[in-house]
Amino acid sequence: MLIGGDWVSCEQNALESVNPADGSINYRVSAAGSEHVDAAVAAARSAVAGKAWRQMLPHVRAQVLSRISDGLKANADELARLQMIENGKVWSECKAQVASAAATYRYYAAVCETLGAEVTPSRGDYLSMSTYEPYGVVAAITPWNSPLTMEAQKVAPALAAGNAIVLKPSEVTPGAALAVGRIALEAGLPPGVLNVLPGTGADTGSALISHPDVRMVSFTGGTATGRSIAAVAAQRLIPVALELGGKSPHIIFDDANLAAAVDGVVDGIFEGSGQSCVAGSRLFVQRSVLEPVLDALVARANGLRVDLPDAAGAQMGPVAGFRHRARIESLVDAARREGGQILAGGARPEGERYAAGAFYRPTVIAGLSNAATAVREEIFGPVLCVLPFDDEDDLIAQANDTAFGLAAGVWTANYQRAWRVARALEAGVVWINTYKQLSIATPFGGFKESGIGREKGVSGVRLYQQSKGIYWSMNPANMPA
Ligand code: NDP
After folding, report:
1. What is the tens place of the pLDDT at every residue in 27-37?
2. pTM score, whole prediction
3. Which atom of ligand 1 is nearest to the CA of 143?
């Protein structure tokens, strides 16, 4: 664990990091108990009050963030490998995620150096201003699917905003967070400003969010966990930012470029073995082109190279763990029971190479209604459910008939329809004739049960700040009566 700039271990309470590609043990990592949570929050609290961090001018803080970005790039292979052996993502994706995390720190260095406050219109002989201050100690809790990028998305803006952070990574992926903690110290971040506590959600996570000195919680993970964290935050009256699950509709109209659309759908659901919050897991296809689209999708799904994550040319690795694969399998079984036709996949790949890993084949299911379990629940695996639609009204009604509202994609050659449909979809991000394009400069977050608050963008820093109004009299004689 990283607490107050020191590396602390706890032999009695350790987690095993398991490689999902072959079931081997990567290493054992100390898990933080309540005494470590207390120590980390105390270290963060004293760092945020200390001069080294509080008085560091924004342009100097920006230099620290820039050096963290450089450190991530310089250690790209180590970071990518840590993520790969912990969550099984293929090497090329892990490398791309290190580059994305580094770009996030660089972006927030620029925001930190340039973001100002406001002089507001006064109603008298005084100067009125809105300034922005950090909350103090922020708890960041993250999932296992993309730890490098998810953690950068929280830590970089929260630091830019002047907070100190206690980060609890997923118990499945503690390695990358610990390495980033080391890189941040090497980059000159004062001790205690970033603390990293591996551990389980039930123990470490819940102790952390309940700690009286934690003044804000930033969470990415499942909707059920988000709901329970929000309940604690409500009791404590502290702000909470929630990036939660999704069941995103991906839509193909009959006038779309079908080859491009199929490419987008395949990337949108099978990249990262479907373990992406924005995975386009419900595909709606206009009935007149259903058959050619299904044929193309089945061919593509069967042709994807599922392999060990570090094998050259691997397009899909295992899913992140054996328990997680069992859950995916149970949802595909539910689809079978509810009348779904498994057109591709629906099973583990066969062969010696896959025997010890948590592999699952890219799966395409047709014939389910929008009410089926596999269509309603987030599977978080390489499973695509395909449904037909007849017209735009039918499409919008089906696409929005979900508890989630994270993302959506629409493929059409008709620009007026693209605009209408994008406006009508209940989702925090809509892609038109593309999918999964993401920019750190564009705010991101969910509608409905997919979350509260927006990360990323310039305004992403404000998520971690509270505004303060300051009124400064220019004429003491004019005091209000
Ligand atoms: P979980 O909700 O199970 O866990 C997320 C994190 O919360 C983990 O660190 C977990 O710890 C911790 N946690 C669990 N229970 C508590 C608790 N009571 N108090 C405090 N912390 C707790 O999600 P997964 O890790 O399984 O990740 C997958 C989910 O994340 C999917 O639903 C996915 O859609 C969502 N996600 C959303 C994104 C978005 O931006 N909207 C992006 C990426 C993923 P532990 O280590 O024990 O699991």
Report:
1. 999 999 999 99
2. 0.97
3. 25
